[in-house]
Amino acid sequence: MGTETLHLYIRRWIPNESYADMEEAQGAIKFYIHCVNGRHLPYVLAVDLKATGELIGDTGVNEVDGNPGEVEIGYGICKKYSGNGYASELVKAMTEFITRAFGINILYGRVMRGNNASVRVLEKNGYEFVKEEFGAEDDPYGNGMLIFKKVCMVCK
User: Fold this and answer.
1) 44 has which bridge partners?
2) Nearest-angstrom CA–CA distance, 19 and 23
3) Long-range interactions of 41-48: CB distance < 8 A, separation 24+
4) How many other CB atoms sit within 10 Å of the CB of residue 155?
5) How large is the angle between the packed helices 116-124 and 86-102, nearest 10 degrees?
6) Which of 65, 73, 88, 125 is 20 to 30 Å apart from 96, CA to CA?
7) Left, alpha or beta for 94 (phi > 0: left; psi -120 to 50: alpha)?
């Protein structure tokens, strides 16, 4: 998949998460490296294919504004690799890691209405639908966001 094709695929579901140019992307990478090395939120990781090392997506968590101890999980897998269970495996692993490493026990997933694949990923991992939200700034199409929640003491 070419860079432009990947960019357009990602922009379909998370258009606000694309960078304007290489300089902006490099700045974000430096910021996220600093957070990971310092073990603080937001915690964002690249996802590569174990067999080849090829970059196939990313994942991360960020604190929910005004609610310390609660995070929102995000994830994305390139279209070329979707449908192989990687997103489900990724959400499971990140949920377990964040719960243990940061002592977080309330996690949210936000999905744009219509992104049924992401709904299935969250549901497979024990996230439960709690509400639909309209007018959120991360809902660029105005179709509504589906909010899912998982409460963990120690996620398994």
Assistant:
1) 60
2) 9
3) 41/71, 41/102, 43/98, 43/102, 45/94, 47/75, 47/77, 47/86, 47/90
4) 19
5) 50
6) 65
7) alpha
Range with top average pLDDT, 6-10, 68-72, 73-77, 146-150: 146-150
Integer CA distances (angstroms), 52 to 55, 56, 137, 154, in order:
9, 10, 37, 32
Q: Identify the three-state secondary structure at position 33.
A: helix
Radius of gyration over every alpha carbon of the chain, rounded to an integer in angstroms: 15
H or E element, residue 111: strand 106-112
Residues in the chain: 156
Q: What residue has token string 């299935």? A: 120
CB 139 within 8 A of CB 112: yes
9-56 pLDDT, tens digit each: 444 444 445 667 778 878 888 888 898 999 999 999 888 898 998 888
pTM of the entire structure? 0.81
